[in-house]
Specification:
The chain contains four helices and three strands. It is of the alpha+beta class. It has a domain of 42 residues: YefM-like fold (3-Layer(aba) Sandwich). The protein has a three-stranded mixed sheet with strand order 1-2-3, with helices on one face. Helix 1 links the parallel strand 1 and strand 2. It starts with a strand and ends with a helix.
Length: 89
Amino acid sequence: MIVLTENDMSPRILTVLHDIEESEEAVVLATAKKKFVIVSEEEYNGWQETNYLLSSETNRKALQEAMNEKPTDGIELNDAIRKLESRSN
């Protein structure tokens, strides 16, 4: 994580934002009163989705169970398409 002061950030804002985009690394902007974390919108949305998915006990348990299951080979794409088509008929 990169830490910058207000003085560091001001003249370099576009460069810093580009670096965040390229590296997907968070940047901490340290002001005299507070610190702010700057991340890409994609990263922020991912955090929000994770928070939402983990916000209920039911979801947390279901996700944990799914993570503990053995992966399966699944089904072929054509078989999945046929199943979906048969449901809509």
